[in-house]
Specification:
The chain is of the alpha+beta class. The protein is built from 5 helices and 8 strands. The longest helix has 18 residues, at 3-20.
Length: 175
C-alpha cells in the first residue's frame, strides 16, 4: 500500500471511529406530527441525541397506542446513523408489540409510519434486523418489501450477545 493510501485509510478509520463516538456534528430532530393508521397511533415519547446502547446514534422512541381505548400496544425506535452496530446488528428500526395486539400488523404499520424520518435524515437503505427464529418479525420485514441479505453472527462484545442472542437476520429496505 502506498503512503498516500495508508494516509487515506488512516483518515477513513479515524472518520469512521468519530462517527461511532458521541455525535459532534449538529443534529436536528424532526417534529413527526400525528402518526396514525386506523386504530394505531404512534406517540413520540422521547428523543435521545446519543443513545449509548446504539453507538451513540440519535434515536426517536414512539409508543404504539390502540386509538379506541388508548392502551399501550408496544413501541418502535427509529435509530439515525450509519454505525456498524446499527447497520449490521441492531438495525435502524427496533420494535415490540404487546401480546394482546399481535396479529394486527402493528409492527409493519408502525414501520411504514416512520420511514419518512429516514428519508428526511438521508438514511437509505434502512436496515432492520431480527433473530432468525422470530418468524413474526421476519414476516414484518417481508411485508415491508425488505430483502433478506444475510444472517450474521453477533460479536461477543455486544449487549445482544450478552443477553443470549447469537445471530441476526439482516433485511435491507430501499426507500
Amino acid at each position: 500500500m502506498s503512503p498516500a493510501c495508508t494516509s487515506t485509510a488512516q483518515w477513513l478509520l479515524r472518520f469512521r471511529i468519530s462517527l461511532s463516538s458521541p455525535m459532534t456534528i449538529p443534529f436536528t430532530f424532526i417534529d413527526p406530527g400525528p402518526l396514525r393508521d386506523g386504530e394505531l397511533e404512534l406517540v413520540l415519547e422521547r428523543t435521545e441525541l446519543c443513545n449509548e446502547r446504539m453507538s451513540n446514534a440519535p434515536c426517536y422512541t414512539f409508543t404504539m397506542r390502540h386509538r379506541p381505548d388508548g392502551r399501550r400496544a408496544g413501541y418502535i425506535d427509529a435509530r439515525i446513523g450509519e454505525a456498524e452496530l446499527l447497520v449490521y446488528y441492531a438495525g435502524h428500526i427496533g420494535y415490540r408489540v404487546e401480546p394482546l395486539f399481535r396479529g394486527r400488523r402493528f409492527a409493519a404499520r408502525s414501520c411504514r409510519l416512520i420511514l419518512f424520518l429516514f428519508k428526511a435524515h438521508d438514511i437509505n437503505p434502512v436496515w432492520i434486523t431480527c433473530n432468525p427464529d422470530n418468524a413474526p418479525s421476519r414476516k414484518t420485514c417481508e411485508r415491508l418489501g425488505a430483502e433478506m441479505v444475510e444472517i450474521v453472527d453477533l460479536p461477543a462484545n455486544t449487549d445482544m450477545y450478552r443477553y443470549g442472542e447469537r445471530r441476526k437476520c439482516r433485511y435491507r429496505l430501499d426507500l
